[in-house]
Amino acid sequence: MRRRQGLSLDEDATPLAGWMYADLLLALMIIFLATISFVPKWSNTSNAVTSEIKQISSGYNYNKGLSLVYSTYNPTAISEDIAAFKLKEGLPGSAEIIYAQILGGFDVKTESADAGRIRALKFSLALSKDPSQMMKSAATDIGSSILLNPTEVAVRLTFVAKIK
User: Where is the chain membrane-spanning (predicted)?
Assistant: First the structure.
């Protein structure tokens, strides 16, 4: 009679296949996360500031912005400058300001950049308290710039016009 063969105790990797699949996914996730760059742009210059503004369904963003520099807060001069810009660029009178970047100047030798930001913040507060409410729906970004004199504040405005 033939002899019966016993069970062989060879290594079987089948139960480990699930762990190998999980390790593979973990390694791919680590490689993916290592390749993504989460570095923000920090700068005090006006041309380096960017923003993302949601598109309003009943309007369009105007591509050109209005850039102005003021030594003192004068709401009449600001309103006249905005009205002249709208007229020159063919924007309707109902166009609203949706974004305002305000930069304060400072002297590098005697002040820090925070002094310029404080000047910009004071200017922004004065604009927000203006009875004409020209900044009622505007998002505001405050900063400082060494390109401006300590007495100057630069204002860059972006407009949106309603589509009829």
Answer: 20-39
The Cα 21–Cα 25 span in angstroms is 6
Within a domain: 25? no
Instruction: Give residue 73's domain range.
Output: 55-162
**Residue among 100, 90, 91, 86 nearest 135 (CA):** 100
Within a domain: 132: yes
For the whole model, what pTM was predicted?
0.59
Does 103 reside within a domain?
A: yes
Does residue 137 form part of some domain?
yes
pLDDT digits (tens, 9 = 90+) for 19-76: 888 899 999 988 888 777 655 555 544 444 444 444 444 455 566 778 889 988 888 8
Mean per-residue pLDDT of the chain: 78
Domain count, the chain: 1
- Provide the CATH number for the domain around residue 75: 3.30.1330
